[in-house]
Specification:
By secondary structure, the chain is an all-alpha fold. It has 2 domains: 49 residues, Orthogonal Bundle (Arc Repressor Mutant, subunit A), CATH 1.10.10.60; 139 residues, Orthogonal Bundle (Tetracycline Repressor, domain 2). Helices cover 67% and strands 0% of the residues. The longest helix has 23 residues. The protein is elongated, with a radius of gyration of 19 Å. It starts with 18 loop residues before the first helix and ends in a 6-residue tail after the last helix.
Length: 207
């Protein structure tokens, strides 16, 4: 357990926040300082100025706490993506630029990036891709767009939207953890997604 976490009282301006959010705030601070492997429930309790029992009341174990942090980070990222993406007029551009946005923005968020890339691959996969919470965020963001495209008969007839979303999240996770040795810049990645992703999803890759 790291011994250098501040034990000062929680500032007054945060005490009005719900306990769960304050615990997530504390967890994010610990993760940024110590990383996912070394952050413990006791660390988070100390940083939040609460007891371990309180932490366990809201999060049954460490994985649940890490997932709570990751889910909140992902929800914030998704909200920003929904502001960014409407500038694109075609579903192919929307999809490709959404992928690039994700690959570009996650590394800028130290806590989220540490959960995606610092855990060993099996732990990260179980935490992020094996959880209904994280997959559901992807579904909430992407399903309306894909459902609309399906209604317009733009998607291939054999596409299952939920399977497509999970597959796409796994593709992005792979590139975050093992960047391409061929497509080494954003323009190359854009070309790659247009070449490989769009024909696999859309009936007409020009739409």
């Amino acid at each position: 357990m790291p011994a250098s976490i501040a034990t000062a009282a929680v500032p007054d301006d945060t005490k009005s926040r719900p306990v769960r959010e304050r615990l997530l705030d504390a967890a994010e601070g610990c993760l940024e300082q110590f990383g996912p492997q070394k952050t413990s429930m006791e660390d988070v309790a100390r940083a939040a100025g609460m007891s371990r029992a309180t932490v366990y009341r809201y999060f049954e174990n460490r994985d649940a706490l890490l997932l709570g942090v990751a889910s909140r980070q992902a929800a914030n990222l998704a909200a920003e993506a929904m502001v960014f993406l409407p500038q694109f007029n075609t579903i192919s551009d929307w999809l490709v630029e959404g992928c690039l946005f994700t690959l570009r923005e996650i590394p800028k968020r130290p806590v989220f990036a540490s959960l995606v890339t610092s855990l060993d691959s099996s732990a990260a996969s179980k935490l992020l891709l094996g959880s209904s919470g994280m997959i559901q965020i992807g579904v909430n963001v992407l399903r309306p767009m894909f459902a609309n495209a399906q209604q317009q008969d733009l998607l291939r007839d054999d596409i299952d939207i939920d399977m497509l979303i999970e597959w796409l999240l796994r593709v992005l996770w792979t590139y975050l953890n093992a960047p391409s040795q061929v497509a080494t810049d954003e323009e190359s990645m854009r070309k790659l997604f247009h070449m490989m992703l769009i024909p696999a999803v859309l009936k007409d890759s020009t739409t």
